[in-house]
Amino acid sequence: AQSVTQLGSHVSVSEGALVLLRCNYSSSVPPYLFWYVQYPNQGLQLLLKYTSAATLVKGINGFEAEFKKSETSFHLTKPSAHMSDAAEYFCAVTNNNAGNMLTFGGGTRLMVKP
Amino acid sequence: GAVVSQHPSRVICKSGTSVKIECRSLDFQATTMFWYRQFPKQSLMLMATSNEGSKATYEQGVEKDKFLINHASLTLSTLTVTSAHPEDSSFYICSARDNHSPLHFGNGTRLTVT
């Protein structure tokens, strides 16, 4: 069984500030981890994924995430927030590289203040 | 551009009627499609997995007779919400992939049952 916990349903940062969205997972098998972004009334867009290669994964739009097995975490970061980053972010886990059968976290809504 | 097209983006229907949502892969053959449901302010929940030419596999707690899934071709899967009720109002998202491509999500369908 797998599960994902995202700490903080809402995160607010100022434009230009560091973005940190937390994700902890539970998995009985080596996990494959994903971060998705959802803009209002749209589907999901893949930001990045961890598939057992490098533990620090760089994604689109300046986001990156680090897989830490000892902490069972896969936190998403961005050095400097833009207004356009305001959206909902979902962390997801699965047991396959293809991203099938994803189990999603509860989501974190990121708000960016001018 | 979008590789998975979901239609309609919004639909309002009366209680007791049926609604069909289409999910099309535009430039690849989707051997597998997934249907997710997102309740307001909640995460996405996998409803079912469909493979072309075979019956869909439903997640626990999802009524297969209420949520009919047809994956009759390699580019089209449909989700039909039968005898819709207000509690079926939700945001439905499909995703699709072939054996080589990453998972692509549609833009979702917001269903409102009055």
Describe this structure in words.
By secondary structure, chain A is mainly beta. Chain A contains no helices and twelve strands. Chain B has strands spanning 4-7, 10-13, 19-25, 32-38, 44-51, 57-58, 67-73, 76-81, 90-97, 104-105, 109-113. In chain B, strands 2, 4, 5, 6, 9, 10 and 11 form a seven-stranded mixed beta sheet that branches. The N and C termini of chain B lie far apart (34 Å). The relative contact order of chain B is 0.33. Chain A binds chain B through residues 9, 36, 41-46, 90, 98-107, and chain B through 4, 6, 9, 32, 34, 41-46, 49, 91, 93, 95, 97, 102-103, 105-108, 110.
Topology:
The complex is a heterodimer of chains A (114) and B (114).
Chain A: E1 2-5, E2 10-14, E3 19-21, E4 24-27, E5 32-38, E6 44-50, E7 56-58, E8 64-68, E9 73-78, E10 87-94, E11 103-104, E12 108-113
Parallel strand pairs in A: 2-12
Antiparallel strand pairs in A: 1-4, 3-9, 5-6, 5-10, 7-8, 8-9, 10-11, 10-12
Chain B: E1 4-7, E2 10-13, E3 19-25, E4 32-38, E5 44-51, E6 57-58, E7 67-73, E8 76-81, E9 90-97, E10 104-105, E11 109-113
Parallel strand pairs in B: 2-11
Antiparallel strand pairs in B: 1-3, 3-8, 4-5, 4-9, 5-6, 7-8, 9-10, 9-11
